[in-house]
């Protein structure tokens, strides 16, 4: 009789526990539509550098395409050093949050992925692309003046042509 009660108790306990349990609420990632609405910025970016800080990584990005929230070409993003998966030299589709004190973070559980495996997401995002500002020139840097460059190249070309003719004449006269 005791064995029967024990078996009934164990059978009843099976119904108390859920079939699937997850350590994180983000074990099931949101759809691309939900992620687009949930996060403050969505970009495709190239990882230029990863700088280790005390409790996080600072990821230096070059934004290639922006679909929401960011118009700057260069971006610095904070990512936790224990779960961050960004790799230098790789392009990712990032879903970012704006931090309270300013700046951006790549939070835990974002549906971040390498661009090479983001075809479905990119298909959804293609019509949502926004313009990116060109990077400003550093102080003291000037844009290229193509007229000056052209004149310099022409002058050097004429000088070289004259020098070659002079050398050929001197070689012909000495023969």
Automatic annotation (TrEMBL):
Residues 1-23 form the signal peptide. This is Gram-positive cocci surface proteins LPxTG domain-containing protein. The chain crosses the membrane at residues 146-164. The keyword Transmembrane helix applies. The keyword Transmembrane helix applies. Keywords: Membrane, Signal, Transmembrane, Transmembrane helix.
């Amino acid at each position: 009789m005791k064995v029967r009660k024990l078996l009934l108790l164990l059978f009843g306990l099976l119904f108390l526990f859920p079939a699937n349990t997850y350590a994180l609420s983000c074990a099931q990632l949101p759809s691309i539509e939900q992620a687009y609405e949930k996060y403050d910025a969505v970009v495709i970016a190239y990882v230029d550098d990863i700088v280790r800080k005390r409790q996080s990584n600072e990821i230096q990005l070059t934004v290639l395409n922006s679909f929401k929230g960011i118009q700057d070409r260069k971006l610095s993003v904070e990512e936790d050093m224990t779960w961050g998966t960004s790799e230098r030299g790789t392009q990712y589709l990032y879903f970012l949050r704006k931090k309270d004190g300013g700046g951006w973070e790549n939070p835990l559980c974002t549906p971040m992925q390498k661009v090479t495996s983001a075809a479905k997401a990119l298909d959804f995002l293609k019509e949502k692309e926004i313009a990116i500002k060109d990077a400003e020139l550093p102080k003291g840097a000037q844009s290229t003046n193509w007229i000056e460059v052209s004149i310099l190249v022409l002058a050097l070309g004429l000088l070289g042509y004259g020098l070659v003719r002079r050398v050929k004449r001197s070689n012909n006269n000495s023969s």
